[in-house]
Amino acid sequence: VQLQASGGGLVQPGGSLRLSCAASGSILSINAMGWYRQAPGKQRQMVVSITSGGSTHYADSVKGRFTISRDNAKNTVFLQMSSLKPEDAAVYYCNAVVGVERLAYWGQGTLVTVSS
Description:
The protein is mainly β.
């Protein structure tokens, strides 16, 4: 499975941004996809995930502000981020959990900067 993330950039506090992650390869074996983020000096943390059945799980820090969605026809998941805060600034990584072994695959990071 290959993951191609895009959509990061600079946004002012309170603004919005949408990230995309396109999956290719053995996509039928994907159990779940999601987004993680890593700020400088901090551990990578889960932001949101969505299973193949459509169940979602959000980190408390982003509930009500971030929304994950997917376009099955394009094998793409989206992360709509609204009401962004400076503490949301990080490198965001797309993630896929694949197969019965539940192997983790990662896309390249995309940088989100929240600053005025």
